[in-house]
Each structure stands twice: as structure tokens, then as C-alpha cells.
Amino acid sequence: MANYKNLSATGVAESRKAPRLELMERIHGHLTSLDVKILVREISLGGLLVEAPLKFPTGAIHEFRLTLGDGSKVIVCGRAAHCRPHKDEKTGAETFLTGFGFLEDQPESAPEIPDLVEKVTSLDAPVGSRIKR
């Protein structure tokens, strides 16, 4: 299992419960309730940051089908914690970045969240993937 420490790059403890793994397009997702593609930007033991064409209201609960780098699929549920507009510098496309906290009660078929994060970190990562603290 990966060893997560709650320290920033300068060694100072931060308020985030778990560091985020920046995915660099290693996980693709689908918002099952609205039939919308999403891009998972970051994942941690506490939740995920997704990019989508929709603005999610804070508190909204959604189910996501995630496709991992090895082609396996998992379903997880999360509650929207924050949402902000995002503009792609290359294309000018406007989307939203939304942080979702994982719910305690996940679908029965879902892996344990620590196991999911461990699997993501163990997949062959393209150059540029990194842990954000």
C-alpha cells in the first residue's frame, strides 16, 4: 500500500486528509446518472476532482463509472464539495472542475477506496504524473 503523509512539499502539515494524485488523464469517467463523460483530474483517499461540462451544486450526490489505465471499470459515489469554472488554455473550451468527497456507503461492487487509490498508483504512469500535497 502506498505510504501517504500529510505534509506539503515544504514539510509543513496541511489540512487535507490525504494527498491528491494528479492523474494526467490516466482515469476516464462517466457520470452515470446524467450520461455525461467526465475527466478525472485528481484522486485521493478522500475523493476526486473531475472536469465536466456541467456545474454541480454543492452537496449533490452522484455515481461515477471510472475506467482505469488497465481498462478495468469501477463504480464509486461522491458528494460535490466545491465547483469552479475552468477554461482550457489550448482550446478555449469552458468546463467546470468539481471536487467530490467519497461517500462512506459505496455500491456493493465498488472496491475499497484505499484499494482503488493503490491500484491507480501502481499502474504504469505516463511521464508527468505526480502526487500533489
Report on the structure:
By secondary structure, the protein is mostly beta strands. The chain has a single domain, classed as Beta Barrel (Thrombin, subunit H). The chain contains 1 helix and 8 strands. It has a 6-stranded antiparallel β-barrel with strand order 2-3-4-7-6-5. A hairpin with a 5-residue loop joins strand 5 (61-67) and strand 6. The longest helix is centred in the C-terminal third of the chain and has 10 residues, at 113-122. Mean pLDDT is 76; it is low at 1-14 and 124-133.
Short structural summary:
Helices cover 8% and strands 41% of the residues. The chain is mainly beta and 133 residues long. A 6-stranded antiparallel β-barrel has the order 2-3-4-7-6-5.
Secondary-structure blueprint:
Layout: E1 20-22, E2 28-31, E3 36-43, E4 47-52, E5 61-67, E6 73-87, E7 94-102, H1 113-122, E8 130-132
Antiparallel strand pairs: 1-3, 1-8, 2-3, 2-5, 3-4, 4-7, 5-6, 6-7
N-to-C series of helices and strands: EEEEEEEHE
CATH topology: Thrombin, subunit H
| Total helical elements | 1
CATH superfamily placement: predicted glycosyltransferase like domains
Q: Which CATH class is shown?
A: Mainly Beta
Low-confidence segments, given as residue ranges, are 1-14, 124-133
Helix content: under 10%
Shape: globular
Q: How are the strands ordered across the major sheet?
A: 2-3-4-7-6-5
Q: Number of folding domains? A: 1
Distance between the termini: 18 Å
The major β-sheet equals: 6 strands, antiparallel, barrel
Q: Find the count of extended strands (DSSP E, 2+ residues).
A: 8
